[in-house]
Each structure stands twice: as C-alpha cells, then as structure tokens.
Amino acid sequence: MQAVQAIPLGPGFAAEIRGVGLADVAASDAAYAAVRAAFDEHSVLLFRGQPVTNELQAAFSQRFGTLETAKAASLGEGTPFSILTNIDRDTGALVPPDHKEALRAKANQLWHTDSCFKVPPALASVLSARTIPPTGGETEFASQRLAWERLPEARCKRLENAYAWHDYAHSRGKIAPHLASERERSSLPPVRWRMRWRNPANGRDSLYIASHTCGIDGMPADEALALIAELIDFITKPEHTYVHVWQTGDVIMWDNRATLHRGRPWTNDKPRHMVRTTITAGAADGLAQMWPPQAAA
Ligand code: OGA
Ligand code: MN
C-alpha cells in the first residue's frame, strides 16, 4: 500500500487524502485502518478523481459500519443511496423551484448534521458529486469539535450533561410548513441525545446540535431555541469552517459526530446530482454515552 497522506484543507480540520482511494479502502484492511484513523483525526476527508459508482461507494462506506437506508418519502427510499438532485427522474427535466426536491435542497442549506433525528444517529456520511453546476452548489463544513474547544469552560460543563431534542419536521418547517409529510413525521418522531459527543478513539469532544434541534431538557422552549441558535452561530464562525468547491470525481466523507454541513445555493437552471451513503453509529463510535438517562424519559 502507498503511504497515506492527509493534506490539510480547513482551519484545523478537513483534509485531502492522497495515496489511497475508495477501492483501496474497500479491498484492504490496512487502507481502511489508515483512512479510519484520518477520519477520527480530521473529521472531513476529501478523495479526488474517484471512478465512483453506487457499488464502489457502498463497498467503501460499508467498511465503516452498517449503512442506513434512505428515509421514508425521500429519493432512494429503502436503499442505501440518498439522492440529492434537481433532475426529474421520469422526464430528465430540471424541477421547478417549488418542487419538493428543490425545497429539500433549500432545507439542506441550513446547517445540520445528518440523521441526528434517527435512532441510532449517523457516524458518517459519504457524498459523491455525480453532476455539478458550473458555479455555486458548494458544500460547507463547520467543526463542532473546534467550537467545543473554544467555548468557555463553564458553558461546556453545563452542556456536557444536557440532552437535546432533534426533529426532522422542525428543520423542514423552517423552509415550508408541510415539507415534512405525515408519513415522514410519523416515521421520525423527535429523539433525544446528549449534547456532547466524545470520540472514543481520541477523547475529543464535540457539541452535538443542528438545525434539527428543537429543544433542551429542563429549559423553557424559547430559551432553548435561542441558545441553540446562538451555539450554531458560534460553531459556524469562519474560523471553524471549510467550503468545498466540487470537482468531478470528488467524494467527501464527514464525521456527523463532529461537524455540521450545509449545501450552498446554485442557480436552479443548472443540474446538480449528488449521491450519499450514510453509516450508522455503533458502540465503537461512542454511541453509549449519547442515550438520555431513563429516569428523565
Ligand atoms: C447531504 C447534504 C449538502 C450538499 O448530502 O447530507 O447535506 O451540498 N448535502 O448537497
Ligand atoms: Mn446533510
């Protein structure tokens, strides 16, 4: 195996991986181990020039754990592939701006971590660019780990044993009141997780909140929403963020325990088609610490 290099991209997180690609990780334990270590260290990994197919993306992603199936009423429902696109599958035409997929793209432009509204939540996401617009449509990342390290200690002390509620319908409601359908709401009731996620590989902590976060146990609703907004503003300050400008062949993997991300807008007259696989968090990823205490249920 070639030596694996991690070239820093962002201010203290995010790196481009050279020396191994998706196929190496799928085929080799040593390549997987090196990339897994880089993932725990850098939180966002970029692989350039990948000959990506659904099969290769799944074979790579499966190395890291169990794959999620795409949620109810989404493109790709029931498969491991979540499809983010403005191309109508039946006609091949671009969807109008009020189309559900266009509104979903807008919701993806809110800072979030994937699947904090699921049980179990996600460890990582792997996103491949299949069709990219000439300008715009970047993906931006923010380090919840750097943010945690730079929050005042007294605040961390209060947050580390606090539990927040996450609700898919909450973030969708910020875009359009009925964007989350009844079927989506009933399949994804609100869930609660600890607000600090400690990575067992290195002991580093992150603040676990997102645009899906709708409340904090023991705090009045308006106070909780104000605190969540203030914390997201803090996490997403420029000194904690990296913007990725996509090139054909790029694949990015990110740590949903330790980063927020959002899509950036582009003009809707240009196609953009992305495919995501998502890896469920397990015991080795520090999931046990995240469950709320039974007594508070
Ligand atoms: C995602 C996501 C943003 C983008 O795939 O989970 O939020 O830029 N994508 O497409
Ligand atoms: Mn996302």
What this model shows, in words?
The chain is an alpha+beta fold and 297 residues long. Helix content is 26%, strand content 24%. The protein contains nine helices and 15 strands. The strands form four sheets. A seven-stranded mixed β-sheet has the order 1-2-3-13-5-15-4, with helices on both faces. It has a three-stranded antiparallel β-sheet with strand order 12-6-14. Manganese (II) ion binds next to loops.
For the termini, the CA-CA separation is 49 Å
What is the residue-averaged pLDDT? Answer: 96
User: What ions, cofactors and ligands are bound?
Assistant: N-oxalylglycine, manganese (II) ion
Shape type:
globular
- Helical fraction equals 25-40%
What structural class do you assign from the helix and strand content? alpha+beta
Topology:
Elements lengths: L4 E4 L6 E4 L3 H6 L1 H14 L1 E4 L6 H9 L19 E4 L14 H8 L14 E10 L7 E5 H7 L2 H7 L3 E4 L1 H6 L8 H6 L3 E4 L1 E3 L6 E3 L5 E4 L4 H15 L5 E4 L6 E5 L3 E5 L9 E8 L17
Parallel strand pairs: 2-3
Antiparallel strand pairs: 1-2, 3-13, 4-15, 5-13, 5-15, 6-12, 6-14, 7-8, 7-11, 9-10
The protein binds N-oxalylglycine and manganese (II) ion.
Manganese (II) ion (MN) binds next to loops.
